[in-house]
Amino acid sequence: MRAPVRPLALALSLTVGLLAGCGPAADDAKPNGSTPPAALTPSAPAKRTLTPHDPPQWFDVRGKVPLPEAATKGRTNLAGQVRGGGEDLPVLLHEARAFVVSPTGVQVVDLADGRTVGEEAASGQVLRQDSDGFILPPVLAGSEVLVPFLLTVPASGTHTAGAMVELVAVSTAPPYKATGRTTVKLPEWALNSRTVQAAVVGAENGTAVVTVTGGDDAVSYGIDTASHSVRWTQPGLEAIQVGAGMAVGLLHVEPLTSVPLGVDLVSGTEKWRGGKTYAAIMNGAGPGTVRVAGPQVGDKGDQLLDVTSGKTRATMPPGLRAADCTYDRAATLVCTRGFAVVAVDAATGTLLWSLKDGDQGRTPPTVTTVWHGRVYGRGAGGPVVLDARTGADMPTKPEAAPLLVTEYAGLVLDDNHLFSYPAGG
């Protein structure tokens, strides 16, 4: 990449400054103490702007800006890695802004210069002071960002203390303030669970779904985003995805045993139910698809299900049940298993490519994130970008391996701190 070109205005201002240093003192140069001529008035530095590239091919390390500590607090391990990966960071990227959530509030950060341009706080006392590592990312719903907070319900009269979830809708426009709040009292287990966490699963057509989990316990709520009221409650449901008029997740029926479940998004009415699955894992695999994997013997232990009917759309290639697969928000599932990287078509379950150590003289990268047809990670020679559909190395050196990506920036972990790097293409 070319080095940045120094603006002409800066060069001229330096020239003017040098010439002014040879003349009379500054006070003497002002006739009758008046304001100096406009030509001699220093101009404010131009505000940096970010240019979108969808998808980015590289990231400008010279333009990095820091994000608040809340972005990684409680998330990194001793090896300096983010537990759970970038998808679980309490951060939502929207255009050139980052919404960074902590147990007590949300900060809005300008990714161009790192300024905090807005803040909003939860309306009560947090349920757990040490819950930084259990905060999940907020969700975009139209012109609002939906942020969940776990709060305490103080004891009052004969009523004992409890726990509640507060859903705060924050505007995506300045000054980034709350446009509505919804509070829901939680079951008793939420107050006593050491691993309780809340997540906004998604929102569609005026209904948002919030799920709260803790150990083998779960509950999900459908919330009207206009009236800020609760439309339905599903005890035991750990919702995973919202789409096609449905909320889909795992219904906890026995210890370590769940059934896939789909409910109507507006009413919460059960539409379909799958079979019992021990140690089931469900992830989003596209707008109308979820992946359900379990340790069953045979190919049926790893399937792509239609969210509207619960029927199998496709069976995943064998050997991937223990692999973590991430949807690239385009058309591909990218899976990592041991030292291998595998790509699968999200619609058909067809194996697109796999890369194992030593294949054709290549070494699989450590995948950090996938987005819009690109696989980002760290390879033998440094950061790399691969084509998600073919597995081929992209020709441009990316300079960084981001944990989260949008068309404007990539978020990169450096010495346990998160930085935003401008995107390039």
TrEMBL record:
Region of interest (Disordered), ranges: 27-58
Compositionally biased intervals (Low complexity): 35-46
Stored InterPro entries: Quinoprotein_ADH-like_sf, WD40/YVTN_repeat-like_dom_sf
Domain of life: Bacteria
Keywords in alphabetical order: Signal
Entries under PROSITE patterns matching the protein: PROKAR_LIPOPROTEIN
Transmembrane portions of the chain: none
Secretion signal, residue range per the UniProt entry: 1-25
Name the UniProt record assigns to this protein: Pyrroloquinoline-quinone binding quinoprotein
